[in-house]
């Protein structure tokens, strides 16, 4: 009597069926019957986690073999632009205009000193070459005039011929550096030779 009442009581209750709006219920209804065993172990779809974005992230992950990408600011890194040449820098850290003017003050002596010790600035080296080409012949002529015991007037004129061009070129080298933006003032015949020597270095 008790067993019949229990079976009659159990028959009045139907098995649990999920509501129609349950995502898991819809997912199981859409899958074919052949894949019932595999769908039993598949993870339920959660609408609050976007499925498309997670799959894309998984495919492009580093563990899956994809190459990691970085933003433009990270991939750019430090600036690799070539540095522009500083035309005002010198090996001795002295001013360019003063060194260029000094190339003519002592004639070939100052020119030789600059060619030996100033190895960085082209403007100074150009005037050192030009000074050597200008003052060396004039100094040789002046020494020759003294050795041959020319008249004092001629010795004085040759001295002026040596000093005046040297002072003028020292002034031009100084002003061209300080006011004219390192413009090269070339003497006739001598300037192109000095420039060629500079380019051949």
UniProtKB/TrEMBL annotation:
Transmembrane stretches, start-end: 96-116, 128-145, 152-171
InterPro entries: MamF_MmsF (IPR019109)
Cellular location(s): Membrane
Polar residues bias (residue ranges): 1-10
Superkingdom: Eukaryota
GO cellular component: membrane
Stretches assigned to coiled coil: none
Keyword Transmembrane in record: yes
Region (Disordered): 1-44
Membrane disposition: Multi-pass membrane protein
Protein keywords: Membrane, Transmembrane, Transmembrane helix
Record's protein name: Uncharacterized protein
Organism: Pterulicium gracile
